[in-house]
Structure formats: structure tokens, C-alpha cells
Amino acid sequence: MRVPARLDCLPVLCATVREFCATVPGLLNSNDSSQTRSATINAPGTPSYSNFVYSIELVLQEAASNIVRHGYKESGKGFLELAVSLPEIEDLGGAKRRAIVMELTDNALPFDPTARKVDVPDPLNMPESGYGLYLIRKLTDKLEYSRRGTLNNLKMVKYVH
Amino acid sequence: MELDYQIAYRSGIPLIYLRGRFDAEAASFVKVQLLSLVNEQQPNMVVNMQGVNFVDSLGLVALVSGMKLCRKNRGVFRLVGLQPTVRFLFEMTRLDQAFELFPTDEDAFADFARG
């Protein structure tokens, strides 16, 4: 899906991943009450399911918002392209796991959100910036950035089970 | 913008109702509104978030700015009725420790009325 690089287009992108989450087997329909990892995400309406979907949506919102505001400098020109998939990928231990993969492509200025040092927010100082990158890092299991020619590609991975 | 903004006053204190999606697009509008309502004579504010189902980092920053200005003027800034997913975001960013959170408007205004 491709949308113009504007902040008012981000809700559409987020709705796309929200609807995608609702189709993921074992995420929406899980009745598994055992103490396995898959049971950490339960049926709809439960906080853990809602938090999972919220996390996915938030990661996308933050990444896309950064691209629109910093990459394109809110010029309103340019595009954001989103691809969502559900592959099985190897985790760090070599085990195969189902994951939601969101890939954002744009032709804005180069911006690598994986390259910066990100501090845990200090509630006493209440910083007025820096939450976005922190949330992207915190709520994904894998984050990969590449630039080919004039295109940025950001791959955001979150395990389902 | 997919956020509704409404303001009421109780005992002279602004009570803001937000509803919908409190995101990057809405944040600058809300921030300007909040900051325009706080000064030395009127340093307090309550924001009801019951109808807000999504907050992003810039939504959070707008609230942080409001709280900081209230505190600078020796007032208080209170939030009412965070939905569970929004509370999850506050916990993730540890801002649940920074804000005064209340379940209802009545709770948030209880000690204003007493004081």
C-alpha cells in the first residue's frame, strides 16, 4: 500500500496493520490457556491482545511520522509504501518463529533510526522528545534499515509467538 | 485530524475532553490550546482522556508540555480515564510515574473543591 507522505495519511496505514493483526492465526483466535509463549497473547478484548496490536500500530505510526516530519520535512511531497507480511523467521537462538513484518519504503532524506543512541525516558526529567525512537526500539524484536539508491527501507519485526 | 477537542470549566479550572486519535497530526493543535490556558492566575488543568483510543509520542509530548507549564506556575495538571492500551503506553515510557492519573472527573476535582 502506498500513501502520500503526510501525517493525515498515517491513520490509514495504521488501520491496515490493525486489520492485518485480526487475520493472524493464533493471535485473534487463540484459546490456548497453557503456559506456552503463544498463550502470552490471548483472545480479542483482553489487555495483552490489545497491547500487542497497539504496539504494532504505534511502531508503524512512530516510524512513519519520523519519515514524514524529518525525512520529508513535512513538505507533503513524496510517498510512504507499506508492506505487511507474516513469515516464519529465525530468532537469535536459531528457532523458527512466526512474526509480523512491516516494511516501510520512502524516497526521503536518509534516516537510520537504528543508528542513534536511545535513552530510557526518565520520568523525573520528562523530556519533550525522544519517545518515538525509544518506542520503536522497545516494541520491536528486530529492526533493520537499508538505503538503496534514493530509497530508504525500514524493516520492523515483532514475533507473534 | 481525527481528534475531537472540547473544553468546559469547573470552578474556573479548564477541563479538556479529548476523543479519538491523539497523534502527531493532532498534537501541535492540542499543545497550543493547552499552553494558552495556563498562566500564573490560572495554573491548573484537567484533561479527560476517556475517549482517546490511540496516543503516539507527540501526543505524549503535548501532555508533558502542559504538565510542565502548570508546574512552573505552581499548579497541577491531571489526567482522567486512560484506556488500558493508553495506560500501557504510559507505563512503557514511565510517564505513569510522572502524571497524576484519576479514574473520573470527580476524583480529579475532589481536592480542588476542598482546597
List the helices and strands and how they pair.
The complex is a heterodimer of chains A (161) and B (115).
Chain A: E1 2-4, H1 10-22, H2 47-71, E2 79-85, E3 88-90, E4 96-106, H3 131-139, E5 142-148, E6 151-159
Helix pairs in contact in A: 1-2, 2-3
Chain B: E1 3-10, E2 13-22, H1 24-37, E3 45-55, H2 57-72, E4 77-80, H3 84-92, E5 100-102, H4 105-114
Parallel strand pairs in B: 2-3, 3-4, 4-5
Antiparallel strand pairs in B: 1-2
Helix pairs in contact in B: 1-2
Summarize the structure.
The complex is a heterodimer of chains A (161) and B (115). Helices cover 29% and strands 25% of the residues of chain A. Chain A is an alpha+beta fold.
3D architecture notes:
The complex is a heterodimer of chains A (161) and B (115). Chain A is an alpha+beta fold. Chain A is built from 3 helices and 6 strands; from the N terminus they run E-H-H-E-E-E-H-E-E. In chain A, strands 1, 2, 3, 4, 5 and 6 form a 6-stranded antiparallel beta sheet that branches. The longest helix of chain A has 25 residues, at 47-71. Chain A is globular, with a radius of gyration of 16 Å. By secondary structure, chain B is an alpha/beta fold. Chain B has helices at residues 24-37, 57-72, 84-92, 105-114, and strands at 3-10, 13-22, 45-55, 77-80, 100-102. In chain B, helix 2 links the parallel strand 3 (45-55) and strand 4 (77-80). In chain B, helix 1 (24-37) runs parallel beside helix 2 (57-72). Chain B is globular, with a radius of gyration of 13 Å. Classes of the chains: A alpha+beta (161), B alpha/beta (115). The interface between A and B is medium-sized, with 31 and 27 residues.
